[in-house]
Amino acid sequence: MTSDPTVSAPAVSTPAEVALRDLATADSLLVALDFDGVLAPLQDDPSTSRMVPESAAAIAALADLPRTRVALVSGRDIATLRRLSQAPDMAWLVGSHGAEAELGIDADRDGDSAVVRSPELTAAEAEMLAAIDAHLEAFEHTLPGGHGTADFLIERKPYSRTVHTRGIAPEAAAALHGHATEVLEEFPDIRVIEGHDITELAVKQATKGDGIRLLVRAGEPTAAGYLGDDVTDEDAFAALDELTDSRALDTGLSVKVGSAQTRAPWRIAGPEAVAELLGRLVAERTEFLRTVHG
Ligand SMILES: [Mg+2]
User: Fold this and answer.
1) Residue 190: pLDDT above 50?
2) In 3D, which of 64, 67, 61, 56 has the Cα closest to residue 23?
3) Ligand 1 mean position to 37 CA, how many Å?
4) How far is the centre of ligand 1, averaged over its atoms, from the C-alpha of 167 (Å)?
């Protein structure tokens, strides 16, 4: 990313400083949010992740507002994302880095408009996933302590397997990453996704940018905001920039959470700041809608 001339290094803003006006006053607004590290603090055990209560309340409030859509965009599979986030029914969900989506019934749209995208594995993808499983199982057994006692987690998702290395010494995590990606020697089409303390081996090529494009196509907002903390969220930021450049959106606001490199123009510190920012958006959006629509 460092060679990308669009990469900026925005300083950390307080939630009060981020320019929300174009979102709050949009004719039709999409608020899209990464889950882990943004709405939910990162956990050593990823199955224990939960939203910051203030963010959960803000999302519920936004989802209840007219002309306002909330979507979660995550690397998690949809079923896990729905369970862990306990997102309101009105929220749209994009999972598996854009490969899966559940866009629920929308009262603002005509008829039965639920869109579910959970594509079958092709034969080639199923073969790659089986190869990943065989490979990971084989190397699990080679580690000191053997299966079940090694200090890492393998998460099995519909289109990928994720090796979680949070809490493991950097050298050991790097070794695990090296082992995990050896399967590419035989199956170079497997996609390696690296994020915060994860190495993911995926057999579909979707990105969170695809997720954003799907959400904008389906919901036709005039403005969209996206908050993300991870490398994979940069694809979502890039998609917002493209959609704004092509005039599909009047406004696309990207906010990076945390200290990593980013192309986003805004940066805030962490999930607590996210909760505060969302609270501000609820207040400003509610006030705007009351003024305009009474
Ligand atoms: Mg994240």
Assistant:
1) yes
2) 67
3) 5
4) 17
